[in-house]
């Protein structure tokens, strides 16, 4: 069992805290690591290390900064199996899902490598006669990243750190205490890649110590991924302190299945989207609204495919569904299933008694499916974050679209159909920020932003894509003129000198 250490100013340091939490191997139920709840002083030390590193790092030419990212990408490839196993072991993702988590961290790194192009500004000669204007994009300062447990590599080390660092900023990253080991390991790879001390710092702490990141005068911006309740508080608190904020929050993504959708292939897409990563992702597909005349056939196909998925330990490559992250989260999912039963939804596949031989203490829940979920049932309206699928029956495209759009969350939305007309109508009128047409998990590649809407996002610039570069830089416009011999002789000018 590891005793973990925070990564501050380029070193793993022994924490002085007396408070540690347990991080589990969810496949076995065993404690895998003891995680320090860093003291307020240690969080302050991380902030000061980032502040001290900022002047030199921000003055380093962008081409030299990205050389570090090039070397990091090679190290991620070199250590791919190690990192994949680590993600599987600490989070519970099965092998392919865990490897995808690491590959998405690499994708964010590759986006950051494009900083020389994506930081380029704009210019206009003779914006006014004889006056030229140039826009530059410059780093801002120290940023805080607050990461969730569900993607230990992708979110902190793909969404947050790479573009922040490439654009010349420094970062204090609060890794999730249930799953901090991948972030700490990749921080060590950053050091190996040549990142100067203090540019990236990784701490683990409670919300009490993390409050410092929201109001500290040396923190210029906050990137957060987590629940809407916490995200809204972080957004309100940090924005009130004058910081830029992006808060990516929870969801209740819906799919609309029209009567012309091919049943078997649609069921396969739904099963993958609903139960992949054990449902622990904000782009999971926990609700399907299906036209009534094909509902029985579709539900039967989903149940048949779901019950045949092999549940097993995350790091065995034959497993198709791994455990959830820990016992507390498993119990919260079980309570939500009981809630659905009490609300009157029809439980057509029950995963509550899932046991994996040889891993009886693991945190397993099998695929669980509710049918005939009605409007107003909490099971179909709020996020469960587990392998639970709800089926709602609708009469028409219009009813299904309206039902989906009534939800306060709008990360993603999906339609399964062979109709170009309805696909276009859906793409135009859905509230979801990421839309899939016959794509169950419509997360775009990293050159596009992760663009949640409504209560799924608070802020102005999303993570990834060009939005990430806007979030981690500020614009500066320089207007220049050079006096002619005639102009040098003048002793007066107008109020609007050169700006009209």
Q: Please, what is the CATH homologous superfamily of the largest domain?
A: Aldehyde Dehydrogenase, Chain A, domain 1
The secondary-structure class comes to alpha/beta
Q: Indicate the overall shape.
A: globular
The CA-CA distance between the termini, in Å, is: 68 Å
CATH class of the largest domain: Alpha Beta
For this structure, the CATH topology of the largest domain is Aldehyde Dehydrogenase, Chain A, domain 1
CATH architecture of the largest domain: 3-Layer(aba) Sandwich
Which runs of at least 5 residues are low in confidence (pLDDT < 50)?
none
Please give the order of strands in the largest beta sheet.
15-16-17-14-13-19-20
Mean pLDDT: 97
Helix content: 25-40%
User: How large is the count of helical segments?
Assistant: 16
Q: Kindly estimate the percentage of residues that lie in beta strands according to DSSP.
A: 15-25%
Q: How many structurally independent domains? A: 2
Largest sheet: 7 strands, mixed
Backbone CA Rg? 25 Å
Q: Total number of β-strand segments?
A: 23
């Amino acid at each position: 069992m590891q005793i973990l250490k925070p990564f501050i100013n380029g070193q793993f340091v022994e924490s002085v805290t007396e408070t540690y939490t347990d991080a589990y191997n969810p496949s076995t139920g065993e404690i895998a690591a003891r995680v320090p709840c860093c003291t307020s002083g240690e969080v302050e030390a991380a902030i000061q290390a980032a502040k001290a590193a900022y002047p030199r790092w921000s003055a380093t030419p962008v081409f030299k900064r990205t050389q570090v990212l090039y070397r990091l990408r090679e190290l991620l490839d070199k250590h791919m199996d190690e990192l994949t196993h680590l993600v599987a072991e600490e989070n519970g993702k099965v092998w392919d899902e865990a490897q995808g988590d690491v590959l998405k961290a690499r994708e964010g790194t590759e986006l950051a490598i494009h900083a020389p192009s994506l930081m380029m500004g704009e210019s206009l000669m003779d914006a006014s006669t004889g006056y030229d204007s140039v826009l530059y994009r410059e780093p801002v300062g120290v940023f805080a990243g607050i990461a969730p447990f569900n993607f230990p590599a992708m979110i902190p080390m793909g969404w947050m750190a790479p573009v922040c660092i490439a654009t010349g900023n420094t970062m204090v990253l609060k890794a999730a205490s249930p799953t901090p080991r991948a972030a700490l390991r990749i921080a060590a790879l950053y050091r190996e890649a040549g990142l100067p001390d203090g540019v990236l710092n990784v701490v683990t702490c409670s919300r009490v110590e993390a409050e410092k990141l929201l109001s500290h005068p040396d923190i210029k911006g906050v990137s957060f991924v987590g629940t809407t309740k916490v995200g809204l508080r972080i957004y309100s608190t940090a924005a009130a302190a004058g910081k830029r904020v992006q808060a990516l929050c929870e969801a209740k993504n819906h799919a609309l299945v029209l009567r012309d959708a091919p049943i078997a292939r649609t069921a396969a897409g739904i099963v993958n989207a609903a139960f992949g990563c054990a449902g622990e992702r904000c782009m999971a597909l926990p609700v399907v609204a299906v036209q009534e005349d094909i509902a029985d056939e579709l539900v039967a196909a989903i149940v048949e495919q779901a019950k045949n998925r092999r549940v097993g330990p995350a790091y065995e490559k034959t497993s198709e569904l791994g455990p959830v992250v820990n016992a507390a989260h498993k119990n919260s999912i079980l309570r939500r299933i009981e809630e659905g039963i009490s609300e009157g939804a029809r439980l057509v596949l029950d995963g509550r008694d899932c046991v994996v031989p040889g891993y009886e203490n693991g945190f397993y829940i099998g695929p669980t499916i509710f049918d005939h979920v009605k409007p107003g049932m909490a099971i179909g309206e709020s996020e469960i974050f587990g392998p639970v699928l709800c089926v709602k029956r609708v009469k028409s495209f219009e009813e299904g679209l309206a039902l989906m759009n009534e939800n306060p969350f709008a990360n993603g939305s999906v339609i399964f159909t062979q109709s170009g007309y309805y696909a276009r109508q859906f793409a135009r009128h859905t509230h979801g920020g990421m839309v899939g047409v016959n794509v169950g998990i419509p997360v775009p590649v990293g050159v596009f932003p992760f663009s949640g809407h409504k209560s799924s996002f608070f802020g102005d610039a999303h993570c990834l894509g060009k939005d990430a570069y806007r979030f981690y830089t500020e614009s500066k416009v320089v207007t220049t003129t050079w006096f002619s011999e005639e102009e040098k002789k003048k002793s007066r000018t107008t109020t609007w000198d050169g700006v009209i």
